[in-house]
Write a structure and sequence with these properties.
Blueprint: H1 2-9, H2 14-25, H3 31-46, H4 52-63, H5 69-112, H6 116-144, H7 148-162, H8 168-185, H9 218-243, H10 248-260, H11 267-281, H12 287-298, H13 307-318, H14 325-351, H15 355-359, H16 362-391, E1 395-400, E2 403-408, H17 415-430, H18 435-451
Antiparallel strand pairs: 1-2
Length: 457
């Protein structure tokens, strides 16, 4: 019995697996598509530890969940290869390099963000983000909006957020409900895309039957659920007890715990909601800070949702309470990272034994299709938000009845960021440059403009 269990737990030598996940973690640039491609190359094509069919099977499940799908896929495959410890190591290593890098960049930004050189660099990076988000709208839209009905989902979601100020979670919930309802009453009107399935790819060295698996049971489910919830919320409760329920640390712990369970469709989908609450409600940072934080997150490995770490660092640094501001920033940054990614482990380890049942649930797939279509409108709203606050010096909020619209003051247009955004758009859409190359060029343009003393930098 012991030998069998050990064999299931370590399908590949654990040391080899740790080394592989570390190598993968250093190459996870370029968003979820690039991150999934890195795992495909290392795990399916080169090492042949898992077959193409099984890899896509795992990815389909991760697509159903809130949170960064690429990191969840790493947890899932790590669990298949080395059991519980394999999933924990794979998921942790996936985010660790990005967490360390962004923590350092957050400290540098707070310490030196007002200098001429740093300000000029960000003057180039922020407009590039506008073009990058526009590319995300195009990429997601080209895959998700396969019919006029789904285009309608995206348009309605965009208007609900940008024009009427309806909260993001409500928009996502209504999109899921609409997708489910259409599947029930008009099944042919809505179909799920997802990742297709043929086997393809090289033959794996390890058969599917040899991969780790647990039989679903109520006992296992309750054990993982209880341990996961304790790990998730005990740090938040501890912070609340030590600093008070109204402290910035408790607010961030609860807020980012909530966003962790509504992050459907990738980081871009939830960032407009995060930006709105962090900037306008909690005043943790400015809209300009938010755009620059996203630019920094784009330059680091790991999931883009890691930008919440930057938000938390600045929020706690500006409202440290009894702590030293630098200590406050680090504490808030680590707490936010914890509550953002612990749910990913919980979702995968809890649901993995039920994957086959979930994949066969057509109603659930239809709800996901509705969410995915609405996410296109959500990301478009994020692009609008960043464009307004990057390309213009001032905005005006129009509130009349249900209308809640933020419009730019056209006389405050900033021509240098506009020019950099246009150049970034050309490089991304026409020249097909990578995100890192575009960010490097735009940072150089911003630096040159700043040193030349051009207005708007």
């Amino acid at each position: 019995m012991t030998t069998t269990t050990s064999a299931q737990r370590d399908v590949v030598p654990f040391r080899d697996a740790v080394r592989a996940w570390f190598v993968i973690s250093l190459q996870t640039f370029g968003g979820p598509a690039g991150q999934i491609a890195v795992m495909q190359r290392h795990l399916v094509d080169e090492r042949r530890w898992i077959g193409q069919r099984r890899f896509l099977h795992a990815l389909n499940y991760c697509m159903l969940l809130p949170g960064p799908e690429a990191q969840q896929l790493a947890i899932y495959v790590g669990w298949l290869l080395n059991g519980l410890r394999g999933g924990l190591v794979a998921g942790t290593l996936f985010v660790l390099p990005g967490m360390v890098a962004l923590l350092a960049l957050s400290a540098i930004y707070v310490g030196f963000g007002d200098t001429t050189v740093v300000t000029a660099l960000f003057a180039g990076l922020a407009p590039a983000v506008v073009a990058i988000v526009a590319q995300a709208v195009w990429r997601v839209g080209s895959r998700a909006l396969t019919s006029r009905l789904l285009i309608g989902f995206a348009v309605v979601a965009f208007l609900a957020l940008a024009v009427f100020g309806i909260p993001f979670p409500i928009v996502i919930a209504l999109a899921a409900l609409a997708g489910w309802a259409l599947h029930r009453w008009r099944p042919q009107s809505i179909t799920s895309g997802g990742h297709g399935g043929g086997s393809g790819g090289p033959e794996p060295l390890i058969s599917d039957d040899a991969l780790h698996h647990d039989r679903p049971s109520a006992r296992r489910t309750m054990k993982i659920l209880m341990v996961g919830l304790v790990a998730w919320f005990v740090p938040v409760a501890l912070v609340a007890a030590l600093t008070g329920v109204g402290s910035v640390y408790t607010q961030q712990g609860l807020f980012f715990s909530g966003t962790a369970v509504v992050t459907f469709g990738g980081a871009y989908a939830v960032l407009a909601f995060v930006a709105q609450r962090a900037v306008e409600h909690y005043a943790w940072l400015s809209a300009g800070d938010m755009v620059r934080g996203l630019a920094l997150a784009e330059t680091t490995p790991g999931p883009l949702i890691m930008v919440v770490q930057f938000v938390a660092f600045l929020g706690a640094f500006h409202h440290p309470g009894p702590l030293d501001p630098w200590v406050a920033g680090v504490v808030a940054s680590l707490l936010t990272t914890w509550v953002t990614f612990v749910p990913c482990f919980l979702f995968i380890l809890l649901g993995a034994p039920y994957v086959e049942r979930l994949r066969g649930n057509h109603a659930l797939s239809a709800a996901l299709t509705g969410i995915t279509a609405a996410v296109v409108g959500v990301i478009a709203n994020l692009g609008l938000y960043f464009a307004v606050h990057t390309l213009f010096g001032g905005t005006t909020t129009i509130t009349t009845g249900p209308l809640h619209l933020q419009v730019p003051e056209w006389e405050t247009v900033r021509w240098v960021p506009v020019a950099v955004a246009i150049i970034a758009g050309v490089l991304i859409f026409k020249a097909k440059w990578s995100v890192l190359r575009v960010l490097g060029v735009c940072a150089g343009l911003g630096l040159a403009a700043g040193l030349a003393g051009l207005p708007g930098v």
